[in-house]
Amino acid sequence: MSTQTIRVLYIDDEESNLVAFRAGFRRQYEIYTALSAVEGIELLENVEIHVILADQKMPEITGVEFFRRISETFPDPVRILLTGYTNIEALADAINHGDVYRYVTKPWNDLELHNSIKNAYDAYKAKIDLRNKVAELEKTNDELNRFIYSISHELRAPLVSTMGVVNLVKMEGLYDSCGEYWGLIESCSNKLDYYIQKTLQYYKNNKVASENSLVSFNSLVSELVDLYAYTDTDTKFDLNIRQTGPFYGDAFRIEVILGNLISNAIRYQKEDEQNKRVSISVLATEEAAEIIISDNGVGILNEHLEKIFTQFFKTKTNHGTGLGLFIVKEALNKINGRISVTSSDLEGTTFKIFIPNVK
Questions:
Q1: pLDDT, position 80
Q2: What domains does the chain contain, in order, with CATH numbers?
Q3: CA 217 to chain centre
Q4: 255: which residues sit within 8 A by CB, 6+ positions away?
Q5: Do residues 270 and 333 lie in contact, with contact meaning Cβ atoms separated by under 8 Å?
Q6: Is residue 337 very low, low, confident or very high in pLDDT (cuts 50, 70, 90)?
Q7: 76, 108, 283, 316: which has the fewest C-beta neighbours closer than 10 Å?
Q8: Residue 266's closest CA among 228, 239, 299, 238?
Q9: What integer is the mean pLDDT of 188-214?
């Protein structure tokens, strides 16, 4: 935009000030004037204004109050306060809360006011440019997520076929007929399936709208244990599920949270542990569900405890995607839940989860 296209609205109850402003700046800006806040709002509703000037001392409403009143309905125009007297506390409060970009004393100096308007317009352009870039980035990110979801979804079909072939080989007793090759194929297929599942979970957790329904923790925990226990049949489970009444929550995200934590509890057991165990305790009341998942696995170093919920964070012993616990935390954030963790290499890891009952 050129200088001539800068649209300035000046609100003042003294018409002589409006006339003087128009006379002094009509060649530099596209000027609109109003004698009251009501007239100013009417203009804002019909014209895209870039910079607003308002007199502080008006009979019905002060300039600062006017700016605050329009801050939500007209957030884009940059605001300059003109004042013949200085109320430092009011000005400081207005500037600190973003209601006023700058203030200029009256009678104004033409050069000072001109520079203030130019700077305000630069701030306006920067704000609009930033918003447009954010919108563009959000669109690009959404398209990328959709692409990743689509590719991940399509990859599962041939992968499931490969895993099916491995199962057929096992059924026919040929699993060991080619040395370690079938085992390598199975291991790589399971690992790839794990990565794909985490990618799909990440996408769905970000995109699927929250939908609350009745949750049975007895059924849900039992199903998840059966689903993940096959990866290590030596691990023993100790379940203590107590649900005192109906519990309503986001069943999809609760399943994602518990599934990731149960899967990790099994995955990170000590290889030489003779008594592998996972303990799952649930107390679901009319207020909330308090869940504790403990294992006697390899544990997490103290310096890593604050980082484990970070996207793609992996320790030297973590061979996962670095997404599991990040997805857990994001899912809990969406349902107003909380999570805490304690761990040691001697006793294993304990996660405590709090999920409100939305009833």
A1: 93
A2: 3-108 (3.40.50.2300), 210-359 (3.30.565.10)
A3: 27
A4: 220, 224
A5: no
A6: very high
A7: 316
A8: 228
A9: 81
